[in-house]
Design goal:
Mean pLDDT: 83
Distance between the termini: 20 Å
Strand order of the largest sheet: 1-3-2-4-5
Radius of gyration: 13 Å
Helix content: 25-40%
CATH topology: Glutaredoxin
Number of helices: 4
Low-confidence stretches: 1-5, 10-24
Order of helices and strands: EHEHEHEEH
Shape: globular
Length: 108
């Protein structure tokens, strides 16, 4: 599988959301989640079955409050599709593989 995953727990302000908006990254997915969240685990399992070419950055909302506030996260799981440092799409809650594929179409 070509999914690139990284995890971001607690971080200093200099490595928080500002990097996502300031860096010239082509496309990535920010996945806001929590260890206690059942729907987050279900979404992770669904994502694992898909052959997603876009890097996925996992952000624990309990450890990274600043990014959760910056991106106005109101519920988990939340996927945010970023293109060239800007949000182009958002998906909230555990979703089916078809719903995720539809969400990813905005990356094209």
């Amino acid at each position: 599988m070509s999914v690139s995953k990284t995890e971001r727990g607690g971080s200093s302000p200099s490595s928080s959301a500002n990097n996502y908006k300031g860096e010239n990254m082509s496309t990535k997915i920010l996945k806001f989640e929590a260890s206690w969240c059942g729907p987050c685990k279900a979404l992770s399992a669904t994502l694992d079955t898909l052959n997603i070419e876009i890097p996925i950055e996992k952000i624990d909302v309990d450890s990274n409050d600043s990014m959760s506030q910056e991106y106005q996260i109101r519920g988990v799981p939340t996927l945010i599709l970023m293109k060239d440092g800007k949000e182009v799409n958002r998906l909230i809650g555990a979703k089916t593989a078809d719903q995720i594929r539809e969400f990813l179409k905005s990356a094209a």
